[in-house]
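Project outcomes to date are best conveyed with an example. Our students and postdoctoral researchers have been running inverse folding experiments weekly, and each run begins with a structure described purely in tokens. The record below, which covers 177 residues, was selected by the lab manager from last quarter's runs and is presented without edits.
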């Protein structure tokens, strides 16, 4: 069992909603000439974000998933990233948008991009709901970011702490009591 903690609200469901509308507008513009965009969610943390995002996109999309894992404990992201589940579909020559929950050290996104680039997509862009720039170890930034946040451990809207709190409708930060 983990130590007791409370969750302080950081980003409301309403603020997430409003930001998603803005991001969707930019994404639609960027991919205006694409007949079918492949939207790739990184499991598990992006499952709510991708569900809301594709409903805002109002364009022809194919949804696929990639699962990564990192060794390490619940709060420490490790530097070693493995692909646990590959895409079902082909992305060669296609336009791809990778959807990530948080860019923290940057190792996960860097590894995933390298893995997907090897399949020669026509275009490969990324969106992260959250970004913790102060934690970066790899020089990488998503094409679009929902919110920059300070170095806090967050949960909700798909994001977990030891597999808990993914179903919170907002983003909160974990505070140990
Ligand atoms: P990175 O490889 O260090 O950029 O870590 C990315 C992954 O670590 C994210 O996709 C999350 O799954 C996890 N992660 C990073 N920060 C947090 C957090 O504050 N709460 C929960 N998971 C996090
Ligand atoms: Mg993740």
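After processing, the design step wrote out the following sequence:
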């Amino acid at each position: 069992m983990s130590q007791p903690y409370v969750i302080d609200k950081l980003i409301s469901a309403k603020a997430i909603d409003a930001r998603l509308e803005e991001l969707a507008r930019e994404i639609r513009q960027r991919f205006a000439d694409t007949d079918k965009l492949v939207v790739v969610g990184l499991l598990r943390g992006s499952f709510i974000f991708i569900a809301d995002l594709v409903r805002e996109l109002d364009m022809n999309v194919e949804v696929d998933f990639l699962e990564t894992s990192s060794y390490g404990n619940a709060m420490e992201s490790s530097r070693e990233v493995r692909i646990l589940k590959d895409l079902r579909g082909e992305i060669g020559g296609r336009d791809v948008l990778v959807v990530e929950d948080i860019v923290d050290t940057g190792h996960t996104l860097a590894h995933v991009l390298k893995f997907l680039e090897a399949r020669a997509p026509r275009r490969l862009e990324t969106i992260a709901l959250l970004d913790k720039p102060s934690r970066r170890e790899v020089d990488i930034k998503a094409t679009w970011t929902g919110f920059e946040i300070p170095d806090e451990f967050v949960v909700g809207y798909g994001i977990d702490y030891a597999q808990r709190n993914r179903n919170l409708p907002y983003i909160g930060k974990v505070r140990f009591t």
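Helices lie at 13-30, 47-57, 107-117. The pocket of inosinic acid (ligand 1) is lined by residues 45, 77, 100-109, 153-154, 159 (CB under 6 Å). The training component of this project remains on track.
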